[in-house]
Amino acid sequence: MRRFSLWLRGRPVVADSVLAGCLLFLDALGVGDEEHKVAYLVFSVILPLPLILRRTYPRAMAAVMFGLSVACTVTGYVVGQDTTDHVALIGMGVMLYTLVAYVGRRDGVIYLLVLGADVVISVQLLGTPRGGDLILVGVIYALCWTLAEFNGARHAYDAEVAARLAVADYDKERRAHEAVAAERTRIARELHDVVAHAVSVIIVQADGAKYALRQDPVAAERALATIAGTGRAALRELRRTVALLRTEHAPELLPQHGSAGIAQLAELMREAGLAVDLELTGELDDITPEVSLGVHRIVQESLTNTLRHAGATPKATVRVHRRVDDILIEVVDSGGVPVQENVIPGTGMGLVGMRERVAVLGGTLSAGRTDDGRWRVRATLPLRADPD
Questions:
Q1: Cα–Cα distance between 240 and 256 in angstroms, integer?
Q2: What is the E.C. number (predicted)?
Q3: Which pLDDT does position 318 carry in this prediction?
Q4: What integer pLDDT is reported at residue 328 of this predicted model?
Q5: Among 300, 308, 316, which residue's Cα sits nearest to residue 353?
Q6: What is the mean pLDDT of each run of 10 residues along the chain (388 residues)?
Q7: Which of 26, 120, 27, 127 has the alpha carbon at shortest distance from 76?
Q8: Given this model, what pLDDT does residue 330 score?
Q9: 3-state secondary structure 295-343
Q10: CA neighbor of 148 nearest in space, from 92, 97, 106, 90
């Protein structure tokens, strides 16, 4: 039954056609008492017709209904008999209800005045309706208006609920898209930090091994060993990163770098040919995994960029200092001019990735040339995450 009701609600013409058919049937039952049966049957048929499209074209059908009512009154005046006792004229009240409920009170008031004019025309031409009929007509119109107010309020409520649901669905979809975009950015940032660092070291060592292969086999062997170690470390890091990205809440999978991890990173870069001075102050092993990973990635990306762009004999000074409320990371290179044939092209996403990571952790980052031509990266990461 509920399904049938919903089906009818989506097809107003069908429901209104049933209403028009019912009025036609009830109106035709009174034809036996009429002297002019043909005229009566004609109006019995045409008076309910505007009801079929009352919700599709409410204003137009209301005007047509008024015109038919006037025509019915004029016909009664011509034949000398009251022909206004059609049951189908209840459709005038139905039209009033339709205008108030589906169009607005302003149109309802205008149509109510039109109905008053229709009553005046009927009284002037036919002398009807009489006092009792006037009261009945007034009660019917008042009832139609009241029902329209209730139905209009329900429609307004349904429309508001539908609008809120639409907004909620849009907001849910927008949040889902934002979450997907944020996750893609996070994955891209992690993979870039792991792969770019390892590949840069491998390329530098491979170039060194190529030049030293004939003149210094020991150095070439050492470079190849560094390549192999770097590749294995990168593979382990990739596996750990993928495991982390696949897990919703798994802090134990986060890389616990700390001071030992930074020292190991510095040693790896020294083996790759980058002279690194490392200064670690304060306790760096008991900070949260997210901040520890952030410190490690910032140092890693900064040293990788130094290895790429700081010339034939690159140098870097790394300072990581734990303060009361935050951790200060500062990486300064030697400011050398890169050898063009050994320059490793980058994507330009390293600095962007660092900024994104620092922003997620609620910190600050600055990067640029110093007055003496060196490149400096300076970042601060708070030890406590913001409540927001």
A1: 11
A2: 2.7.13.3
A3: 92
A4: 94
A5: 300
A6: 64 84 84 74 87 89 88 75 72 90 87 84 66 73 89 80 80 74 68 67 69 70 74 71 58 58 84 85 85 86 80 84 91 67 50 81 88 87 64
A7: 127
A8: 93
A9: HHHHHHHHHHHHHHHCCCCCEEEEEEEECCCEEEEEEEECCCCCCHHHC
A10: 97
Interacting residues of 168 by C-beta distance below 8 A, sequence separation 6+? none
Token digits of residue 184:
């893609």
Nearest to 309 by CA among 344, 276, 273, 269: 344
Rounded Cα distance between 48 and 330, Å, is 86
Pick the CATH number of 175-382 from 3.40.50.300, 1.25.40.10, 3.30.565.10, 3.30.450.150: 3.30.565.10
Cβ count near 206 (within 10 Å): 13
pLDDT value at residue 357: 80
Q: pTM for the full model?
A: 0.45
Domain assignments of the chain as residue spans, ordered by start: 2-129, 175-382
CA distance 43 to 253: 84
- Structure tokens of 16? 């209104």
**Residue 67: CB atoms within 10 Å:** 11
